[in-house]
Amino acid sequence: KGRAAGQWAAGGGGGGRHPYHPPPMLRELERKANLVESEVPWDVFSREDIYRQRVFGGKGGKHSLTSPQDKSKYGCFSLLLYASLVGLCMNFTLERCPVHSVFRVNTAVETTLLRTGFAFEPAPRYLLDVATLGDLSDWMLQALPYVAAPQDVPNLLASQVRITVRRMQMLQNQNPRFSALAPTVWRSISGIDPASAAADFDNRTHFGAYRGPRWCNASKRSCDGGELISRHSFTSRTVRQCQLSCTQARSPQLCRCFTLVDDQTCELYAMPEELLREPAEQGGRGCEASLAPPLGANYTDAYWPSMSRFEFQDSKLGWRGTPGAVTSLARLPPWGLRYEVQQRLEGGLVPNDLAALAVDFLVHNANYQVYTWCQVTFQTTASGEVKAEYHLFSLRVSKEDLKMRAANVAYPMRLTDLGVAGVAYLVALGLVAVKEAEAFGALGIRALVSPSALLVAASLATHVAMLLSRFVYLSSAGFTQMVADAQEADLGGLSGAKAKFEEQFAAYQVFVLFAGLNLLALWWRFAVVVGGVLPFCGLLIDTVRQAGGQIFILIVVACNIFLAMVVGGHLMFGKAVPSFHSFQHSLTTCADMLMGELTSFDEVRDYSPHLGRLFCFLHLATFVFVLQCVSKAIILASFDDACARAEQRRSQAKNGPTVFSRIKNLAVTRALADAWERSKPTRPVATKSATQRSCLSVLLYMVFLASFFVSTHHAINVPYNYAMQESVVEALEEPSFGEPGSAEFGRLRDVTNPREVSLFISEALPSMMFNASPGNFGGEENFLKTYHGSSDHSKAHPQLVIKDWNALLGLSPVRISVRYSHLQEVYADEAIPGIVPAGTLLPVRDPAPTEVSDEGTRFTPPIKEATSVLSIFEPKARKVIEQYCEYKFAYGSTDSGTPTGFSCMLGMDYNATKSQLEEMAGAQVVNNQTVLLAVDFAVYNAWADAVLYTALVFQFQPSGEVITDIHTSSLYLATYHSKHWPRIASDLVLLLLTVFYFGLSVHGMVRVAVDQWRGSQALAREQGPVARVAALLRAVLRHIIAEPFTVIDLASVVVLLVLISQWLTIAFSTLHTTWSAPDFPEWTEGRCLKSPFCGDDEVLSAFYAAGLKMKQVSRTAGAAAALLIFRAVGLTRMHSHMRVLLLALRNAFKDIVCLGLITFLTVMGFSCMGYVVFGSSVPSFSSMEGALLSCCQIVLGLSTTFSLNAFTFSRVAGTAPHAWVFAVMIIFRYFLINLYFAVIERHFRTVEERRVEGLRALGKLNADGTEVSDTSTLASLRAWARASLSLQALMGKGAPRAAAASGQDELIEDIGQRQLAAKSARSPKAADGLADAGDLSAPVEERVTEDVVQKVGNFKHLPPEVQEWAIACSREACRLVDESAGDLDGPGQDDAQVEASMQRAENAIAQRRKKAATESDAALEALTPKLQSLREYREDQESLAWYIMKREAELKRLEILKEQKLAQLERLKETSRSLVAGTAEEERPPGEDG
Fold first, then answer.
1. Could you give the CA distance from residue 991 to residue 985 in angstroms, rounded to a whole number?
2. How confident is the model at residue 684 (pLDDT cuts 50, 70, 90)?
3. Containing H/E element for 144?
4. Which residue among 427, 443, 804, 820 sits deepest, i.e. has the most Cβ atoms within 10 Å of its Cβ?
5. Average pLDDT of span 455-467
């Protein structure tokens, strides 16, 4: 037995579920005694393994035995429990990760940071354009004040602005050849990282001297040692005037001191920095701690500003705890900050030896209650380049948190942070943990090597880690506590605010990371549970599990190749190509190339044409073709193995209890099954349609498609509409606002804040209205600028034109719509001193701030709107709105009875319109109360014969972000005119054919229903009326869904009918039928009575409503086009190979749905992790929909919208983005995508085998495997007959015969399927035995005998009693078939009688089956106690065998150890003998011999 155990362990035995793969050394355990310490891991083996070992001996390894059934099955309870856990965990996580709020604020702050320029000639330059120290100084002076304290936005400066300066130590140039060119060099060529806490290379000396706001003076003293700049005389307030003159004196040198010569004269002096003295060395009043210039004795008075040096601080007070010279700017308006920055720049803030500079400050958004730590860093390289980077870290500090912290509620707050949903989540987690613990207990130590158990452990560990990190975050909320305690003080003046924020944010990031990992593991675990319930899903997971090891090896190889390509690309192209200039950029570029981003290919090709092309080709060919195909081969092989194992498990467990069998045994389930059986259709349903096979049907369908595309082209006319839209959008984007070269200069695409919106409305909009068409025709003014409604030219009206051919409609053609929200005061308990004081007016936030979306017509949550001018808090805006506007139907209103804002109409007079818009801009119509401003108008283009409605919408978000959208919709008013006869003809043809195809679909369903109703008349009394109706509905539903193209046919015609109804609603609407250009454009009382409209604003609202309907028509037309094209694919089934492909796809549909479910669960895991971890910084992950789309983009390689650079530019710190992207690529590209190929390939192979077997059975296959071609006259007659039958079916006649004629290919497939089933179900001997069963007219006892049954292969292995029982059952079944067939032999029977006979036979068989099931259940209940006792005996025997084998193996190990010790003892004896003999030889005297 010990030898057998050793052979069994070395042979790899151990079952399929827990295989043990010993190392090669263990296989030679008996031959090599020195490997005796490598024990066999008996704890890994299961009882089934030992039982097989006892039965089959040492050769019963895993390759020769059937794999044991997996015991880790999941039922419906587990599925519901995990689904509840997923939902509760998602709710718990997303409530504590305010991704959307943080992203909104980050976007607004980032926009202000990146779109605030510091230079505007010849082109605007922004933060990321900083490249030199001069650019850095300009950005600090021109942009930083407006970035830190922007105007008219809800993001307020919440702290001082800290500036950290680090300088490099300079050394003498030791190279004598170039020392004359560069006397000094940097001590470290790598520079200083702004985030580094080490100060080894920092220059610690003080530098510079900047002026402060205060002034110092000394009596009887004068400025000494400086250079006289100028001399000034004043008649009054001499000291104050001299101070202003000294402050403004900057050229050529700074004024740092002035002497008051007399009461009206002063002298200004420039003092070099080296002459300034410490405060203790020089007297003065007013600023004892300030630097002072050298003073001389005189009878005059000396004055100088307070001055300070930039002192190096090693106390970690700089940005993120780094050393350096730290200076702070107070919380001031932009002009105050600009003055402070200017003083520091003049004092030497940016020296020549600057190595790094960091600027950071806190911003608070009261609407979202979010604090943002804005950080901007500049690093200077040894080459002279300045690199600018920025980081945005945000935290949400709600008023509930502040109240809890203000009340000093610490640990209770951490407990109440759970809430009801959190408690439910913990309960569900506990139930899952208990259930998984039971599974662990059943596995024992084998759980350590089970992949499923390890996944469960990882999932539970991430849950615990997330909860612990949340507790740590609540414990380290020092910044929240600081804000709560700041009731009487200004937060900006509190020391350590940024340090506390950094500590709390670090804890929050840890929580977010664990929360994302937890969601990823949870969704993966849920996919495994779904696989335990749904068999095919479990098969897919088993495939992934089996292929995991080989794919891992392939990934290791791929990583090595990828690293080689990264290093090679960096070395070859890094010197000249920006995409490869660093290792990180090379890594990102190579990864982006795998996702389809090939922009770097052009750079590499331009640098080195031949080498660049070769590099890119090798990189793409290796990963996209070679490794992808290798992984596909691995998945295909693993999928075949998994299918084989699943078939074995299914055959072993077919009589065992399952979840579904237990459900079927319930009384309620049995009753429902009986009702379902009674409602079964009495006759088979024909699912094949002859109308999809004939040439006539193909020709008719082509006409149908042509009419559809012609009609949709005339209705939508995409090319003309696009041209009109581009013309109008270009006219909106061309005008500029602001002075050229100033910070306010820009165009529509540059609008980022409310101030720029006001400038655009007051300056660019009039230019668009009146100056968008300056051209003339033939030297004369454009004739479209005059309204040609009447022949009386004395009453001609002007007309506004855009881009020469687009005429604006109406005398008041442009409408401005403004919507305001209600404001509420901030109460004392919600105020933040110094930032949001009590009494501040903020938009209503109940329960969250209102966001604008969906073209500016949807507000989330619903807006509490200001509906009267009295609700506008800005006095000037209230006055202007009351003068020019009216609260009525505005933009977004589809009828004149629904007010949607303040509507302000603009007329045709340039001066009046310009004055009105300037007054609106000057009165601050756009303020912190504005939520929406829309400019809409309609233009008519005679070339396209259409009206284009255009709306320019500015959405003011609570985060301070301004979103600009342009929405257009075109409309044809003269739809059906005599000159439009092609459109009318195509529409009529489309309508008739749509009704025709809809009639065919309905006719097929009615025919099936009538046949079913007639066929069930004979059994009406047995079934009952309810069962008959249910059977009828089942037959109709089966007719629809049995064939995919039947569903597509019905769906396409239904969508087309909806499209036609929508189009007719628009074509015969009031706007189309009644509105036209009148002779005189004024809206008189008579015109209002004759027209349903009375004003240009009503016409605009009507065009807006019609535009919405046209968008619905466009969407419906797109859906209809897709369905019709899919439907056209069914016409290709006339070709056999195409039919095989379509049939394979149809058969694989259910498997693809299961695989799609697994894919969806996997995608949800990655999407949830990406949304939680990256959503606050990356735009593509700011919503769950965006995260799902980003995952799909990575898989499909849509790099135009996504790449790793998106992470880099959004400043997601760490390696998490790269790890996440690579994990998504590996899981999807190497596993899931290949599974789709495996599923389709398996079904395609099966369908092709069936077709070949069917052709072989019908004799239509040659010896070489090709089909037999039939070119005889009989074949021509058959083709003519099929065409005739198809024509009859098309006209509604002869449908059964047509279906029969067109079903030859299906017959071939059915025959092939039966042939394959027969081959797999019985041996050739059995087939011969069934063929020789004898005459069917003989008695049953003579036809079914032991001689006939013995030819079945497995019959001889049955016990004698079972053989007798099998023969008796076979005779009984044969007798029942004979009786049922006898009812069908009578003459004159119609279809109804035949169906009734078949139904009676089925009912009889069902009754017998039910009776047999009852008897078998009773027998099983009687045998259950005995089977339980037998099972206990078997387990005892297995346990005994377990210990016997283990003891014998231990004895064998001891025997081998004994032999080893004996061998060592013998070697020791031999060595001792040789040593003794050698010593004796040495001691022998010289001259003596042996």
1. 10
2. low
3. helix 144-148
4. 820
5. 88
Q: What is the pLDDT of residues 703-725, one digit of tens each?
A: 999 999 988 888 888 888 888 89
Reduce the DSSP state of residue 327 to 3 states and report it: strand
Check if the beta carbon of residue 169 is closer than 8 Å to that of residue 201. yes
Residue pair 1298/1004 in contact (Cβ under 8 Å)? The answer is: no
Q: Which residue has the tokens 């019609």?
A: 1106
The confidence score (pLDDT) of residue 765 equals 93
pLDDT digits (tens, 9 = 90+) for 1349-1361: 655 666 766 777 7
Of the CA atoms within 13 Å of residue 1247, those in its CB half-sphere come to 21
Q: What angle do CA 448, 451, 452 make, to 5 degrees?
A: 100
Give the residue, 572 or 1344, on which the prediction is more confident: 572
For residues 13 and 57, give the distance between their C-alpha atoms in angstroms, rounded to a whole number. 10
pLDDT at position 509 over 70? yes
Q: Tell me what pLDDT residue 103 has.
A: 92
Give the CA distances from residue 1044 to residues 693, 1038, 1313, in Å, rounded to whole numbers and listed in that order.
15, 11, 20
d(CA 1376, CA 1360): 25
Predicted pLDDT of residue 840: 75
Per residue, what are the HEC states of 1061-1125?
Answer: HHHHHHHCCHHHHHCCCCCCCCCCHHHHHHCCCCCHHHHHHHHHHHHHHHHHHHHHHHHHHHHHH
Distance, in Å, from the CA atom of 1032 to the CA atom of 1023, rounded to the nearest integer, reads 12
Q: Which amino acid is at 311?
A: E
Report the distance separating Cα 767 and Cα 1376, nearest Å: 94
**Ordered alpha helix ranges (H), 595-717:** 599-607, 609-620, 628-652, 659-664, 667-678, 695-716
- Whole-number pLDDT of residue 1487: 52
Q: Residue 965 phi/psi, 5° resolution? A: -130, 145
- Give 1008-1030 as a DSSP string: HHHHHHHHTSTTHHHH-HHHHHH
Q: What is the pTM of this model?
A: 0.77
Q: How far, in Å, CA of 304 to CA of 799, rounded?
A: 66
Residues 207, 868: Cα–Cα separation, whole Å: 60
What percent of the chain has a predicted confidence (pLDDT) above 70? 76
Integer Cα distance of 198 and 323 in angstroms = 8
- In which element (H, E) is residue 386 found? strand 386-396
| Spatial distance between the Cα atoms of 1243 and 1235, rounded to a whole number of angstroms | 13
Phi and psi at residue 395, to the nearest 5°: -135, 140
Q: Output the CA angle 1219-1222-1225, nearest 5 degrees.
A: 150
Residues with Cβ within 8 Å of 1005's Cβ and at least 6 positions away in sequence, in order, are 1036, 1039, 1040
Identify the three-state secondary structure at position 195: coil
Cα dihedral value 239, 245, 248, 253, nearest 10: -110
Identify whether the C-beta of residue 451 lies closer than 8 Å to the C-beta of residue 543. Answer: no
DSSP strand pairing (227-233 vs 257-260): unpaired
Total length of the chain: 1490
1050 three-state secondary structure: helix
Q: At what angle do helices 2-10 and 47-56 cross, to 10 degrees?
A: 110
- 125 backbone dihedrals φ, ψ, rounded to 5°: -130, 140
Total Cβ atoms within 10 A of residue 741: 11
Model confidence at 665: pLDDT above 70: no
Supply the mean pLDDT for the chain: 78
DSSP 1340-1363: HHHHS-HHHHTTSTTGGGS-HHHH
- Report the pLDDT value the prediction gives residue 916, as an integer from 0 to 100: 93
Neighbours of 1407 (CB within 10 A): 10
Tokens of 322: 């780094």
Name 738's Cβ contacts closer than 8 Å, sequence gap at least 6.
744, 745, 746, 759, 763
Give the residues across from 166 on adjacent strands: 356
Q: Does residue 191 carry a pLDDT above 70?
A: yes
